[in-house]
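@channel anyone free to eyeball this complex?
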Amino acid sequence: MPAASAPESPRRGLSIRGLSKDFFGNRVVSDLDLDVAPGEVVALLGENGAGKSTVSAMIAGIHPPTEGTMVWEGQAFRPVSPADALAAGIGLIHQEMRLLPDLSIAENVFVGRLPMRGAMVDRETMNRRAAEQLQRLGLDIPPTTRVGSLRVAAQQQVEIAKALTLNARLLILDEPTAALGGEETDRLFEQIERLKQDGVSFIYISHRLDEIARIADRVAVLRDGALVATHDTAQVPVKTLIEEMVGRSVDRMFPTIAPPRDQEVLSVDNLSGVDGAFRNVSFSVRAGEVFGIAGIVGAGRTELVRAITGADPLASGSVSIDGQVVHLREPGDAIRAGLVMVPEDRKQQGLLLDQTLADNVAYGNFDLMGRRGWISPGAMRRFAQAAISRMGVKGQPAQSASVLSGGNQQKLVIAKWISRDPKIFILDEPTRGIDVGARAAIYEVIAGLAQSGMAVVVVSSDLEEVLGLSHRVLVLSRGRQRGLLDREALSHVAVMELATS
Amino acid sequence: MVAPSEQDQATGRLTIPSFNWGLGFFGPLVGLVLLCIVFSFTSEYFFTTRNALNILDQVTVLGILAIGMTAVIITGGIDLSVGSVLAFSMMMMGWLSREFGVPLEIAMLCAILTGAACGAVSGLLITVARLPPFIATLAMMTVARGLANILTDGRQIVGYPSWFTSFATVRHFDFLSVTVGVFIVSVILAFIYLRYRPGGRNLYAIGGSPEVARLSGIAVKKVTVGVYAMCGALSGLAGIALAARLNSSQPSAGLTYELDTIAAVVIGGASLAGGVGSIAGTVVGVLIIGVLSNGLNLLAVSPFIQMVVIGCVIALAVTFDTLGRRNR
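replying in thread with the prediction:
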């Protein structure tokens, strides 16, 4: 079709004009113009629901556009499937990995197009060519390694290697650092730099604004499906970007939290996990305190809080609540003792997406509603209504949890536990995958929990967040307690030094 | 699909309000009513009180089994052993009373306990040994069938006292036999439990995701063992009902009942993936199977053709259910 719009982009690379997409009669992306030159990293910013994923899905051939044209390397580009887009040289690296865990790296890279010699798979060629790509990415892993045994960061690089063997010249990275620690992020950025030199272009989608300045050449901001700003440099103040994304000015991201009280609520002594995920961790949290746990991915943070709440077994050490040693063998024990946790992965561990808000709030709280163990649908609905209004969840008790936005889903998990007035609230990655506007709301909630006298523990990979919220921060590295920093001693550098030690 | 949350947020689409116990059985109910209408036209005998009571008599054993199976399937499990456990329990009852002179009332209790014990073992295999429910109950299916035969070396036990057989044969007030009454009471109790008790509600959480359920403070292992034990106990109860009906205990009784039971539960709208299902739906499912074979019998359709029809109904029911779910 319309090579008509080609003159506007004499350059090679990708040129998008007037791209729009309707879902069920609703316009989710409207009239988008975007150019990506060879060897350029364009950051695509926007809150959840702004249309970033839809844009990348159209470019990668997952959804056809409703209107508009794309020109890729001088040719009209209308991919009908992801395979089609990849054949043209455009690959999408998903947020969630789509690899086959029981096959080797090389097999994953070449799946569906295994090099053959006669009727047999040519393993030698396959492994050699996979090794070449791994080397190009600066990875020193044998191509015969089983993918399931790799860490998330390495799996992501296998995905990239796979796209590169298909001679991809534009890679769309959707939240590539969501599951990566600081060191792994650095490595990814090095690889992006290296591939840029080879002329590979990137569309980089991320919620982490601090990364944008480091990696992007240009920034495009989406809001409600439309492009609201493009910057020809990535050196844009974070505050400006946030204001553009949210559409209103953001004064401060983090609420001020009053100093903690004296009373010690949670204390853990010399805690070790069964698989050595963490060893000899000791700390205590006071009423009204926000206690941060920082560290790169794999440092043992999630393992630590899961063990504290009885979700995983402890090898040794003790947990005390209000000065009494408690033995929490199951999460149920912890909940009855006033210790609740918002788990790391709200979709897999926190919520039943197919079930209603009322059901989700009710599980674990039946003892609080109804009379003598009798519950009625009405009692459940009233209980849920009270909890979701208290937390400002935008939804109705009878709605299914899957229709909520990420931020509202997270609030729902918090709402469920807040009904119990717990003593200790542990939140593992409370804002993962949540857009900027909703994050501020979650921070307000966390501040509110502390204000009401709960001991709050926040685990986060987002350093900004840990620093902005916490009174004190525990830094873990490779399962060891590297330091406990007071508010005065808190800084990016101090935490990163400990975390990478 | 790309981030469904994005779309939903953008379109502001609401899902139809639906609690777990809601109208999930509405489709099957319509099917049941249609079946009844069709059979009323094809056979003048079909739409009579007497035939309705006959159908209830015929579905009692299947119905009691289906109650336990519903609970198991809601948790995301499956129990292939119900037919064998039924046989083992009924043999246990006959064997204890015949060989050891145990009073039949006590032997009946033992039958139920035998079933519960079998179920508990399946539950432990699933939770402690971490076997998939399919495998654990497949093993139990074989073992229980073997045990049922071992007790009497494969011989049946014939001839129960008349007060016992009257459970299945005498209709009180010209209306309900004891076995049908037991079925109806079990249905009501199970309905109340699943709808109004935390223990019942928690089954839906476990079926939705055992991990979410556990992190919500639900004792998933304990509940799971309990569900299988209850399913086993109900198999024992069904065994007693069948023995009363047959006036004998047979080690080969209940062969392939597990499949009929699963079919009834699934036709009633439960999902083998767990988290979805209701007693009301299961009762409709049981009645669909009962009405279908009764109606076809009245038309003198051969049992072989009946099998074909029932198979098609299962496929149809689940297809409609899946399509309905997708449209939501």
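from a first look: Chain A has three domains: 3-246, 252-338+422-501, 353-421.
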